[in-house]
Amino acid sequence: MSWKAVTVEQRRLEIVLAPTVLSISVTEACRRFGVSRQQFYEWRRRWENDGIEGLRERSRRPRTSPFRITETLEEEICRLRADHSDWGPRRIRAELVRQGVNPPAKSTVQRTLERNGLISPQPRKRRASTRFERPSPNELWQIDAMDMELTDGTEVHVINLLDDHARFLLASRASLVLDGIAAWDCFSIAINDHGVPKEVLSDNGRYFSGEHWNLVSAFERKLWALGIRTIPSTPSHPQTLGKLERMHRTQRAWLGRQRPVTTLAGMQRRLDGFRWHYNHERPHQGIDDSTPGERYLATPPATPDHALQFRSVRRTAGHDGVVRYAGWRINLASEWAEASVEVVDCGDKVRIVYGDELITSFSTEEPKGYIRSGVYRGGHRIPRRIEG
User: Fold this and answer.
1) What angle is formed at CA 102 by the lines to CA 97 and CA 104, rounded to 5 degrees?
2) Neighbours of 13 (CB within 10 A)
3) By the 8 A CB rule, do 76 and 92 touch?
4) Average pLDDT value for the chain
5) What is the percent of the chain where pLDDT is above 90?
6) What pLDDT was estimated at residue 385?
7) Beta-bridge mates of residue 162
8) Under a CB-based contact definition with an 8 Å cutoff, are residues 37 and 31 in contact?
9) What is the DSSP string of 41-82?
10) What was the pLDDT predicted at 308?
11) Is the per-residue pLDDT at 6 higher than 80?
12) H or E element: which one contains 351?
């Protein structure tokens, strides 16, 4: 019998005998020793039946555990974790489902891993806020880029395109230059394989969107020509592209576990391998542990509504009547000198408007540089400033 056990038993015996030895009531004895009346009577019953042995500390383990998992299942859970150190309880549970096993709850898998020393106990996480999700594939695609490095330190830009509804990775392309051409190459691959989406949500990089630069990017013009509506993300708010940002983290971790890559072509092969793994092998927690490929094919895709897309900005003509916009210098003639006009960019055509009056328009196929509008109204429609 250990010293600690003897101390516990003797202490409990002292409490049980206190009413008799000290000539006090049971209530007073419980108050002095800080125990409940129920506990006092339980200890006294055990002492009367079994003597001092009855006052020993007893196991709190239940007599039966009808919901305890089998040893075979516990071994399989531990094996999955040992073979895949980055798999958590939820991923392991999803893999058990795919094996045809009736799995325990995620919390049971977590306790099993903790009990076997395979993970450290984790505090309860705050429930995530409700995220928006489009109801069908191709209703909204998200596009953004992240940076990686080759073994020689060369920076590679990885452009990714993700379906919002299914988290399906539509395309993943490696490029040494991040610009509108690289973005369109990636997008072209996606639409050739999966059709044309209804909307595209992009980062605010100038190669993706000119919304916050008071112009229309070449990438946006091509999307508008296909009838696709463009949506720029909120500045300094990465949560807008949260699904894609989370996929970037998964992609970066997966690439980090592979052998180093020395060439751009090698990086592209790795990206292709990851895309297959991500879409068809990896259960996704955000879509009820199905794979993105399964979810993408489960619902008919959306199509563009071909609504007119345009963006307008204010510009002030110079003293010579020339307006500068997106690399063009449009001559409105001297009658519009210092006029504040509205430049309406519809993707395929740019219109210069003053109030309700169309001043001029030109095709965006025109080379960047000087454009003579060829419009002369006669007289000065805009009052000139009076020099004082």
Assistant:
1) 95
2) 17
3) no
4) 85
5) 37
6) 44
7) 142, 169
8) no
9) HHHHHHHHHHGGGGGS----S-S--TTPPPHHHHHHHHHHHH
10) 82
11) no
12) strand 349-354
Q: How far apart are CA 324 and CA 315, in angstroms?
A: 8
For residue 131, what are the CA distances in angstroms to 25, 128, 162, 240, 287? 61, 8, 16, 10, 12
Rounded Cα–Cα distance for residues 329 and 127 (Å): 54
| pLDDT, tens digit (0-9, with 9 covering 90-100), for 194-210 | 999 999 999 888 888 88
Give the Cα separation of 260 and 247 in Å (integer): 20
Alpha helices in 195-263 (DSSP H): 218-225, 242-256
Instruction: Report the topology of domain 140-298.
Output: Nucleotidyltransferase; domain 5 (3.30.420)
* CA–CA separation, 352 and 374 (whole Å): 13
Please tell me the total number of residues recorded for the chain in this structure. 388
Nearby residues of 307 by Cβ (< 8 Å), 6 or more positions away? 227, 229
SS3 label, residue 373: coil
- 102-105: Cβ within 8 A, 24+ apart: 104/69, 104/73
Instruction: Give the position of tokens 């949500």.
Output: 201
**Rounded distance between C-alpha atoms, residue 107 and residue 356, angstroms:** 65
What residue spans of the chain are helical by DSSP H?
A: 3-21, 26-33, 37-50, 71-83, 89-98, 106-115, 180-194, 218-225, 242-256, 264-276, 292-298
**Rounded distance, CA 131 to CA 155, Å?**
33
Give the span between the Cα atoms of 262 and 125, in whole angstroms.
Answer: 40
Task: Compute the half-sphere exposure of residue 349: CA atoms within 13 Å on the CB side of its CA.
Answer: 8
Instruction: Provide the token pair at 20.
Output: 């008799």
Question: Rounded to the nearest 5°, which phi and psi values hold at 353?
Answer: -125, 140
Local structure of 170: helix, strand or coil: strand
Take residue 341 and report the two structure tokens written for it: 């006009």
Given a contact cutoff of 8 angstroms between Cβ atoms, the answer to whether 362 and 349 are in contact is: yes
Copy the structure tokens of residue 261: 């890559």
Q: Long-range contacts made by residues 93-100, C-beta under 8 angstroms, separation at least 24? A: 93/289, 94/283, 94/285, 94/289, 95/283, 97/289, 98/283
Q: Domain ranges in the chain? A: 3-55, 71-115, 140-298, 311-372
Question: What's the chain's Rg over C-alpha atoms?
Answer: 35
Name 177's Cβ contacts closer than 8 Å, sequence gap at least 6.
Answer: 157
